[in-house]
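Note to self: user wants both folds in one dump. Writing first protein now.
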Amino acid sequence: MDSLDGKSGESRASDLQYESAAITDEQIIEGLGVSEDDIPYEVACRAHTGTSMSPEVRAESERSSYVSDLVTNARSFLEQAKDREERDLIWEQLLRYKDAHLKRKLAYLQSRNGLVSTMIV
């Protein structure tokens, strides 16, 4: 998906210059092009409407944990890179992983729509 600057995730990732092994969360978020907005609030909220006393809080939690999980996973892989070439390869795989993870996360949340707990209703 193209960003507002017209660059794909791969371009943004390859544009980032990492002089050291220490990569900030912001660099990872920028490189992957990940945002809480990748998961629409309404989708996350509907997923918990029938199973939570506070679906709004759960929706925000789903969205923030999505970003946090991706950053944590990306960091663990990027720290294993021995050189720039290996890091670039890892970035390519992380971009594919992000897309696949988002697709499955959205499918999971959409599958919970309409799920009802007798403790909540």
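First done. Writing the second protein, which came from a different request thread.
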Amino acid sequence: MIAIVGLLVIGPEKLPKVARTLGAYTGRLQRYVSQVKEEVNREVRFEELQSLQEEIKEGANQVKSSILGAKHDAEETLKSLSEDAEAEQKPAAKKKRPRKASATVRKTPAKKTTAKKTTAKKATVKKAAAQKATAKKTSTRKPRAKRAESK
């Protein structure tokens, strides 16, 4: 219907030229619209990436702060434990004061007898081993030649 109106208004000689020009402008308009769409999409993606980047930075800062908090807590715990250990060592050092000359420490004779018993046991074990070795050497065996003959 538009073609019929265009034929009547423009005329048959100019109609092909006008149609080509109109087609070129339509193509340019379509390219321009697609470029604008791409630009808008690019801006939207850029804004999404920026918001994602901000979220990642916030998450990284939270992780960093939690790690630093845990480190601080660990340092405080270690410090308190070392102070407790030092506090326990100080009273122990006070208890180890040298005693007066009137107090004497006696050693129990049980340790000496235990040493004597272990020495005696070792000696008997050595004697038994020596006796077994001499018994093996002096055991009666048939000479080789006789063994071969007996077969």
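Dump finished. Worth passing along: Residues 15-95 form the longest helix (81 residues).
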